From TrEMBL:
Naturally occurring in which organism (per UniProt): freshwater metagenome
Record key words, sorted: Lyase
InterPro entries: DHquinase_II (IPR001874), DHquinase_II_CS (IPR018509), DHquinase_II_sf (IPR036441)
Biological processes, Gene Ontology terms: quinate catabolic process
SUPFAM superfamilies, A to Z: Type II 3-dehydroquinate dehydratase (SSF52304)
Enzyme class: lyase
NCBIfam families: aroQ, PRK05395.1-2, PRK05395.1-3, PRK05395.1-4
The keyword Lyase belongs to this UniProt entry's keyword annotation: yes
Alphabetized GO MF terms: 3-dehydroquinate dehydratase activity
Enzyme Commission code(s) on record: 4.2.1.10
Protein name per the record: 3-dehydroquinate dehydratase
The keyword Membrane belongs to this UniProt entry's keyword annotation: no
Span of the signal peptide: none
């Protein structure tokens, strides 16, 4: 079973972006972690990153059409993109929202997610491990 992991804006800069918040793992390293962790729980994983809202919406449409499960870190779009939420609402397989940091411990504008209400669940605050936990959760959901 294939799972698409979608990473939103600025996550391509992991490694050098605010390491005190997001750690020092690069996006390329994160891709490897996700591929390895996916294989451990029986999932084929593809990781994509875009800074472009329209691109992310297109990927979500494709996942809706192909009943592909999605793990998404919408990054800053989490907090205001109704367009991404509406695309996510069309998904036909589970969606898990992930965050590296715990947005609830940060600035108030990060406390709202417009995505969570259309996600099966949310995993936040475990660093890059949030993705591993999300892959395990997705695997459990899919084999249930
Ligand atoms: C983030 C949290 C968001 O508030 C922020 O805009 C990001 C990353 C996280 O993974 O912790 O870009 O989604």
């Amino acid at each position: 079973m294939k799972v698409l992991i979608i990473n939103g804006p600025n996550l391509g800069r992991l490694g050098t972006r605010e390491p005190e918040v997001y750690g020092t793992t690069t996006h390329a390293d994160l891709v490897k972690v996700c591929e390895t962790s996916g294989a451990e729980v029986g999932l084929e994983v593809e990781v994509r990153q875009s800074d472009d809202e329209a691109q992310i919406i297109k990927w979500l449409h494709d996942c809706a059409d192909t009943t592909t499960p999605v793990i998404m870190n919408p990054a800053a779009f989490t907090h205001y993109s109704i367009a991404i939420r509406d695309a996510a609402a069309m998904l036909t397989a589970p969606l898990i929202e992930v965050h590296i940091s715990n947005p609830h411990t940060r600035e108030e504008f990060r406390h709202v997610s417009v995505i969570s209400a259309v996600a099966h669940g949310v995993i936040a605050g475990f660093g890059v491990n949030s993705y591993r936990l999300a892959l395990k959760a997705m695997s459990d959901l899919l084999v249930r």
